[in-house]
């Protein structure tokens, strides 16, 4: 359970979970929503996978992430987002950026 | 094929829960009516049933079929699975609450209506999702 709290304490990881609540996404699709480096995103994904909040499935060269949260964990995510968690580390505003525009 | 320890864990957990539930019923039956009034026993078993439904509803969201084995669109499957988990969890909580606080004469009806409605909603959602899925032969 401490892994779940650790995972939910970070706003970037909470945003990843909220994006995955809409639909399963590849690592690339998720990374487009954040202005952070690939290794940092991979580290966030690893924490979420370790906490068993998301599942990763490899298809060819891409990895698809899917939500794997129980109802209790989803409720905790909601609480963490509304009230914040005591262990929340303040993250610079630049860490979570709006999705980049796609240029054909 | 022999299963791994991780694959056997849900089966072991389900069997343990079933055994605990049977033990609770047997203990309550033994204690009733000398040490436990009949209505209290009924409430206890009813609340335990609701707690069991809540437990399984909560865990249902974590049961992911492999993407390749899915018949539904993964987006639809995820939405329906989350709806199922939330409905059964809330229905189970309402079932437990009904047995704990509703008047004895109405507890059964209120509890059954709460959980039954949740099961009905879930069934309708799965059937409608399946009906909207085009029937294409899987490779």
Protein model, in words:
The complex is a heterodimer of chains A (104) and B (139). Chain A is built from five helices and three strands; from the N terminus they run H-H-E-H-H-E-E-H. Chain A has 104 residues and is an alpha+beta fold. In chain A, strands 1-3-2 form a three-stranded antiparallel sheet. In chain A, helix 1 packs antiparallel against helix 4. Chain A is globular. In chain A, 27% of the residues are buried. The C terminus of chain A is likely disordered. With 139 residues, chain B is mainly alpha-helical. Chain B is 76% helix and 0% strand. Chain B starts with a helix and ends in an 8-residue tail after the last helix. At the A-B interface, strand 2, strand 3 and helix 5 of A face helix 2 and helix 3 of B.
As laid out across the biggest beta sheet of chain A, the strand order is 1-3-2
Oligomer: heterodimer
Which spans of chain B have pLDDT < 50 for at least 5 consecutive residues?
none
Give the CA-CA distance, first to last residue of chain B: 25 Å
User: How far from one another are the termini of chain A?
Assistant: 43 Å
Number of continuous helical runs of chain B = 4
> What profile does the largest beta sheet of chain A have?
3 strands, antiparallel
The interface involving the most residues is between: A-B, 16 and 15 residues
User: What sequence of helices (H) and strands (E) makes up the elements of chain A?
Assistant: HHEHHEEH
Strand content of chain A: 5-15%
Content-based structural category of chain B: mainly alpha
Q: Provide the gyration radius of chain A in Å.
A: 13 Å
């Amino acid at each position: 359970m401490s892994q779940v709290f650790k995972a939910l304490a970070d706003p970037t990881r909470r945003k990843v979970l909220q994006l995955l609540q809409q639909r399963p996404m590849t690592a690339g699709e998720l990374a487009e929503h954040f202005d952070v480096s690939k290794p940092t995103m991979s580290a966030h994904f690893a924490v979420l996978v370790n906490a068993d909040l998301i599942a990763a499935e490899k298809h060819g060269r891409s990895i698809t992430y899917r939500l794997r949260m129980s109802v209790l964990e989803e409720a905790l995510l909601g609480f963490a987002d509304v009230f914040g968690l005591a262990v929340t580390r303040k993250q610079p505003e630049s860490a979570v950026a709006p999705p980049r525009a796609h240029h054909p | 094929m022999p299963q791994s320890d991780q694959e056997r864990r849900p089966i072991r957990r389900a069997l343990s829960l079933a055994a605990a539930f049977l033990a609770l019923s047997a203990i309550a039956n033994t204690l009733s009516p000398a040490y436990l009034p009949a209505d209290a026993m009924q409430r206890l078993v009813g609340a335990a049933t609701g707690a069991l439904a809540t437990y399984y509803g909560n865990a249902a969201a974590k049961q992911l079929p492999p993407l390749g084995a899915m018949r539904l669109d993964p987006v639809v499957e995820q939405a329906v699975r989350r709806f199922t988990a939330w409905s059964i969890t809330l229905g189970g909580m309402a079932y437990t609450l009904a047995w704990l606080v509703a008047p004895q004469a109405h507890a059964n009806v209120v509890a059954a209506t709460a959980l039954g409605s949740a099961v009905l909603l879930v069934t309708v959602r799965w059937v409608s999702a399946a009906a909207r899925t085009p029937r294409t032969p899987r490779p």
